[in-house]
Amino acid sequence: MSKLTAPLAAWVLMSSAAAAVHAEVSGPDWLPQVLQLPKDMEVVTSREIGSSMRLLRLATTQDAGELLGAWRIALLAAGYSVREPDENLGLLQLSFSGKGINNAQIAVPNRGQKNRAMIEIDATLDD
Question: For 54, how many CA atoms within 13 A lie in the half-sphere containing its CB?
Fold first, then answer.
């Protein structure tokens, strides 16, 4: 084996491992696995308040309306109870419950940055 072969092999293995880690974006363990998070998401806030309240705020360049639509379909298919949004509020939102989540809401406030959407996910877990 040449002097270059061992370092090259190590680099290939490390690159492959790094690519595998970044290939699938996962959120906190309390978040339903059926919610596919955007690959470009930036976690702005992630908090646990007490034993049952959770808050996740993330930023993405993906279209928030399309994300919420895909998440709604995924949650329904996975057996979660999904409530229709209150159109009077003028917000993009999705409320759901089930499988360890007493009540959760995903909302897109109107204060996002240009070309980026802020998505807020808050949940109250079952005791």
Answer: 21
User: What is the CA 10 to chain-centroid distance, rounded?
Assistant: 32
Q: Which two tokens mark 104?
A: 């959760």
pTM to 2 decimals? Answer: 0.75
- Choosing among 1.10.3730, 2.60.40, 2.40.360, 3.30.310, the CATH entry for 24-125 is 3.30.310
Task: Give the 3-state secondary structure of residue 21.
Answer: helix
Single-letter residue type at 41: M
- Residue 4 is predicted with a pLDDT of 47
Q: What is the pLDDT of residues 27-81, one digit of tens each?
A: 899 999 999 999 999 999 999 999 999 999 999 999 999 999 999 999 999 999 9
CA pair distance 49, 125, nearest whole angstrom? 11
Tokens of 37: 């998070």
Structure tokens at 115: 């070309």
Output the six-digit token pair for 50: 């007490």
